[in-house]
Design brief:
This protein is an all-alpha fold. It is built from 5 helices and no strands. It has a single domain, classed as Four Helix Bundle (Hemerythrin (Met), subunit A), CATH 1.20.120.
């Protein structure tokens, strides 16, 4: 298991990479677009997974919370909300979307919409978590 400083750094690196979707010049070739979309899906999923694991680290290290029945993403999000680590219910939607888009690697019609959603709604929340974690775990 990674220690919290390693996870914080991995989350920071993954988020820096995910932010690059804002500047993607999407090709017209559907095969290439599909390949790039698979990369975006993977990077979003990795970033989200690191985020909830970072929240768990913050709960344990900073808030001294350790009563996790399963330590599942949904449970960690709920505990993080209760501890004011996150203050937006959008995180539950982010989890749902991570599960949904991981099965949409063949559906390219919604790529622009998903990227706008990740960029406009989710990256700002990831950035807030990064600041919160950096302030408390560094």
């Amino acid at each position: 298991m990674a220690d919290y400083s390693t996870r914080l750094e991995a989350f920071r690196d993954s988020l820096e990479s995910l932010v690059k979707i804002e500047s993607i010049d999407w090709p017209n070739d559907s095969d290439v677009k599909g390949f790039i979309w698979c990369g975006v899906i993977a990077k979003y999923s990795i970033t989200f997974d690191l985020s909830w694991k970072l929240m768990k680290d913050i709960l344990i290290q900073y808030h001294k919370v350790s009563d996790f029945a399963k330590g599942s993403p949904k449970e960690v999000l709920q505990k993080s909300y209760e501890a004011d680590i996150i203050n937006d219910h959008t995180w539950a939607k982010m989890l749902e979307d991570r599960n949904t888009i991981s099965h949409q690697y063949k559906n390219l019609e919604d790529v622009d919409e998903w990227c706008r959603k990740i960029t406009a709604q989710y990256i700002p929340l990831f950035n807030e978590l990064l600041k919160y974690g950096g302030d408390r775990l560094s």
